[in-house]
Structures are given as C-alpha cells and as structure tokens.
Amino acid sequence: MLQQELLRQLLELLLGLLQVRQLLELLLVLLELQLLVLVLVQVLLLFYRKLPEQQPTKMRSTESFS
C-alpha cells in the first residue's frame, strides 16, 4: 500500500513537472516573439528616420480645389 501511494505521488509530481516544463516552453516562445516585435519596431523606426522629411506643399492663393 505504501509503495502504491509513493508511486501515485511520484506520478503526480512528474505530471506537475511536465506542466511546468510546458509553461516554461510557452514562456520562451512568447519571449522570442516579443524580441522579434521589438526588433521589427526598431527597424521601422530606423527606416522612418531615413525617409526625407515631407514638407506640406503650400497652395497659391489663386489655386482652388476643383
């Protein structure tokens, strides 16, 4: 009886460890995705900085919308 109880507790512990491992793997994937998003944002910011500044065109007073 004691041996069966110990085996049951060991099995529960192993299942718990498996769940912890799965959660850690999921956390790792989420961290990798977060890093990817941060890198993409940095690339977009660098690209945006390299764009020439767009000055709004001034309309002459004689021009009108058609």
Written account of the structure:
With 66 residues, the chain is an all-alpha fold. It has one domain (1-47). The chain has one helix at 2-50. The mean pLDDT is 89.
Number of separate structural domains: 1
**Protein structure class:** mainly alpha
Shape: rod-shaped
Question: How many beta-strand runs?
Answer: 0
Q: Roughly how many Å is the radius of gyration?
A: 30 Å
Figure out the total of helices. Answer: 1
Order of helices and strands: H
Distance between the termini: 93 Å
Largest sheet report: none
Note the beta-strand portion.
Answer: under 5%
Q: Could you estimate the helical fraction of the residues in percent?
A: over 70%
pLDDT < 50 runs, ≥5 residues: none
Mean pLDDT: 89
Describe this structure in a few short sentences.
The chain has 66 residues and is mainly α.
Features:
66 residues; mainly alpha; 1 helix; 0% strand
